[in-house]
Amino acid sequence: MQTNDQWTTGDFRRRGAVVLELLAEFVDRGRGRDRPVVRVRAVDELTRIMELDRLPAGGGIDDEGFRELVVVFLDHGPPVHHPAYTAHQIAVPHYASALADLISGALANGMSVFEMGPAAGAVEIAVIDWMLAKIGWQPSGRNRDRQPVGDAVAGGGVLTHGGSLANLTAMLAARAAIAPEAWRWGTPDDLVVVAPECAHYSLSRAVATMGLGTSALLGAPADAFGRALPDAYPSLLDAIAAEGKTVMAVCANACATATGLYDPVREIGELCRERGLWFHVDGAHGASALLHPDESVRMDGVELADSVVWDAHKLLQTSALCAAVLFRDGRRLFGAFQQDAVYVTDGEREIGHDFIPHQFECTKAPLGLKLMLVLALAGERGLSENIGALWENTRRFSARIGARDGFEVLCAPESNILCFRVEGDDGLQTRIRKTIMREGDFLLSQADVGGRRWLRMAVMNPLTDEATVEALLDSIEELAAELLG
Predict the structure, then answer these.
(1) Dihedrals phi, psi of 219, to nearest 5 degrees
(2) What is the pLDDT of residues 377-434, one digit of tens each?
(3) Cα–Cα–Cα angle for 353, 354, 357, rounded to 5 degrees
(4) Which residues, 6+ apart, have CB-to-CB distance to 84 below 8 Å?
(5) Which DSSP string corresponds to 359-387?
(6) Is the Cβ–Cβ distance between 115 and 271 less than 8 Å?
(7) Full DSSP string of 12-48
(8) Given the DSSP bridges, would you call strands 407-409 and 191-195 parallel, antiparallel or unpaired?
(9) What totals of helices (H) and strands (E) does the chain contain, helices first?
(10) pTM of the predicted model, to two decimals?
């Protein structure tokens, strides 16, 4: 009988060693600034260089061809390890997380069903309970039916492939709390969600996906920087009620993706408690401040929330993707999804046993292993020190940029996200960013705040230093002079 055995362990060891060697070299070169941050080439050119049109039908490349393919792929992959990579909120991953990805790829334990990945299931439960405790909620304690433990209600949650799915899951749970029949009969058309206009776009996607339409996402009162103004909320909520609408959830940024600024979580949470409203905190980026003794004040009051999103792949040195959606009352998660599939669940409703009834994904990688291995090696102290270094560096960079002639910072940073601009109009900021990206020495993003366009840095790498920032500012100055001249 002919077989097509995909696992020749000798090939795996040999080619795996090649991959590890090339990856280590890739990281060293990036950290040492021995390569550009990014090489921007057209899709057609990349397809030709990597011979992507030929490979699918041909297959069977030898060791040399395999090595060359990996080399070319890495050569055109921006290294987040590079000190000048400041564009996006992607963690510089701990090597333990990378090894977890290798383990996951080899085992292929799609652990949504407990029997497919018992160890992965146990790890996810432990990671969720660790996060619940950091927020100030009652961990599950393996309490499968989520019954109260003394005076406390056990929390709950799941890991998802990204914050967008996590926000969607939180909104589905909020809908189930206020409209229990919505899963069967559809979303009532009187429901609205209140959130700052600078809320992450995944929130508007969630509202639209649920059938409410983006018109049901109402902008919360905010200051010039987009931070929520809780004192103005009562009149807004009263006006919503007067129009015959029902608030499904009130959302807060912790922190805002564009600016890195935190909404006043406690004030909004207390108001929601008084009015019996679901309070959701999107802490995808900024919830990691909970691990730092000085920065945790940004999350003051988060324990008042009903749901929280927290991405490990942003500030917990975990490779993408690993995002958590967490609930103060773990029983709320049971309403988010209400389908039975006997062939995978046997009709069971045991969060942390079979995860599939409580998450969007049917097949899910063992996401918790990535964060657990990081915790096992770096520990909470290591993660806290990394967060503190990034925050402190960002404050120093802000002061340096603000003191330089011709530059302006948006405001004092509250996290590791910093918005600034060079003297000139909005179009100049965009042209500078695009030119810098084409040249490949730096990588920046941009944001629109207060009716103006800003260059935006996400300081994700402790190796990003004053010399890197000074070189960036010098480059921006030179480009501005050229573009304006």
Answers:
(1) -70, 130
(2) 999 999 999 999 999 999 999 999 999 999 999 999 999 999 999 999 999 999 999 9
(3) 135
(4) 33, 37, 441, 442, 443, 464, 468, 471, 472
(5) SS-SS---THHHHHHHHHHHHHHHHHHHH
(6) no
(7) HHHHHHHHHHHHHHHHHHHHTT-S-S-----HHHHHH
(8) unpaired
(9) 16, 11
(10) 0.93
